[in-house]
Amino acid sequence: MGANPLNYTFDSLEDNLIVFSQRGNKELNATFLSALETARENFEKRTGIKTYSTINIRTDSPHNDACLHIIDYYLWAIYRLFANQEDRYFELLKADLNWLWIWMIQE
Q: Is 56 exposed, middle or buried (0-12, 13-18, 19+ CB in 10 A)?
């Protein structure tokens, strides 16, 4: 465990595509991109490491994007666990989430 399962970092890629769920306000794309660029500039100032990869943002609905659909289901199951103390959906995903949690705390 402990190793990055994706085996890369954002600064090692030429292009980054970030997809997030569409919530009606198209102006969020520009705001989100601006925040990411500011974060990149702050990272470069703090570490001295310059990144050259492009950042592309796309909004979509979970109905059209399988990855968003999966993430929505995971988040929904976690929400049900905490909001309703209902763990039957969380239990189905627990092994996957446990692996992710172990990887995150070992980094």
A: exposed
In angstroms, the CA 43 to CA 53 distance is 14
- Integer Rg of the chain from CA: 17
**pLDDT tens digits, one per residue of 39-95:** 989 989 998 988 888 888 888 888 888 888 888 888 898 899 889 999 898 888 887
Q: Please, what is the Cα angle at 94 between 89 and 19, to 5 degrees? A: 80
Residue 23 backbone phi and psi in degrees, to 5: -125, 20
Average pLDDT in the 10-34 region? 75
Q: Could you write out the three-class secondary structure of 14-28?
A: CEEEEEEECCCCCCH
C-alpha distances in Å from residue 78, one per residue of 17, 32, 56, 86, 93: 25, 25, 28, 9, 9
* pTM assigned to the model: 0.55
